[in-house]
Amino acid sequence: MSTLPRLTRLMTTAAALLLSSSASAFVINGDFETTSHVLGEHNGIYLDQMNNGQWDVYDNIPGWYTSGGAGIEIQRNTVVTAHSTSRYVELDSHNANSNSSMSQNLTLNAGHQYELEFWYRPRTSTPNDNGIFVYIDETSGSLLSNMVYSVNEQADSNTTWEMFTTVFTAAADNLTLSFSAFGLENSLGGFIDDISLRDVTSSDVPVPAPLALMLAGALLAHRRRTAVS
Ligand SMILES: [Ca+2]
Ligand SMILES: [Ca+2]
Ligand SMILES: [Ca+2]
What we know:
alpha+beta, binds calcium ion
């Protein structure tokens, strides 16, 4: 194999690695499929032992913590089929103060624009029953104060999972992303799955300095070899 195709392949692999790391670095466990051995508060089901059709409410799950209300209710293909794999969240959870909030601290680049994407599905056909607020707050400030999105739909016979996106500018490097249930507090609400974040400002992914140097070195070596051959 000549050097040029090999080099092209190296660069393609490097770019793919960079893209995949930038795509997954921001939100941890946005699809709620990562489990740990934490005990559910209502049914006594450990998150990593939950069977299909079961559900429970958790204080903390990988990536997310409860920032208000009863906790994070995980369902495993319980009321509906998950948008991805088998698990999703319902933040109108269970027990008193069922309208709950979950949060995750993020490390972003202040001034960059980010596109937040998530999948939502209303559970009931009752007005003002399935609401979800999305907040992006400075981690050092007060939580649930800077709302960036709100969705509040009612189910009908055509209801399925829907994707929602919103773009925001990072006001600081350290931000907290929160989802919060609102409306009728009756343990039935909006389902959430597949939360992700994309850096719009850096969408032509800048090559980090060490990799740029490595690629420049490889190109130089290739030119030298070409020159003498
Ligand atoms: Ca999922
Ligand atoms: Ca519930
Ligand atoms: Ca509700």
